């Protein structure tokens, strides 16, 4: 049965709607003129201007620090949470609570974290954003790892315990290698989410330091410039590279696990 070509029209319309604005941002980042809306010729000068903007460089460094730290926290806690919910404590209520940071609006989560920091009298800074992003991304890591857990062979863990291995040894020698592809995928997802997260960082970072999304927000308040387009193109490249690297490492991990 032949499919009508009209069925592909909604698909391509959706693709164009989603990716055309991104393509425009990348194209206009190579604009030689100062206008962000009129293309006047090819040039790389805005990338040079961007490289000399100390505020952008500081924001990028802060963002990478936050993303790296929160990824470690989210990966460790998310993996342990997934294993605990899937293997030891099965409860729909706990499942809902564990995934709540992923489904709550960012604004609600950000206000809640800010109130909590105020309650415990924690001074705001990069470390407070690291903790906040770790809590936010932990739910996503747990969801990814739980999906991987559903496809693992529990008989290997049972055989390990029957042979005298303790819970820690079984987890480190049997469970963890099977979960490696899911853990890598969850870690890359956590890193990408933290990289461009704005609302939670805005509420929990304080006034002395800024992450890159906050720097971008402060810059576009006075209008979009080709420098912003260049920065957006770079962030797009970083995100794209992270996604491809995560998929590649996941495939390699799955291949090794099968061997």
Can you put this structure into words, describing what you see?
This protein is an all-alpha fold and 259 residues long. It is 77% helix and 0% strand. It contains 11 helices and no strands. Helix 2 crosses helix 11 and helix 7 runs antiparallel to helix 8. The mean pLDDT is 82.
Summarize this entry quickly.
Its main location: membrane. With 259 residues, the chain is an all-alpha fold.
Largest sheet geometry: none
Q: Let me know the number of strands.
A: 0
Cα distance, first to last residue?
40 Å
Mean pLDDT: 82
Q: Give the number of domains.
A: 1
Structural class: mainly alpha
Approximate helicity band: over 70%
Radius of gyration: 22 Å
Helix-strand sequence: HHHHHHHHHHH
CATH class: Mainly Alpha
In CATH terms, what is the architecture? Orthogonal Bundle
List low-confidence stretches. none
CATH topology: MetI-like fold
CATH homologous superfamily (4th level) name: MetI-like
Strand content: under 5%
Shape: globular
- DSSP summary: helix tally: 11
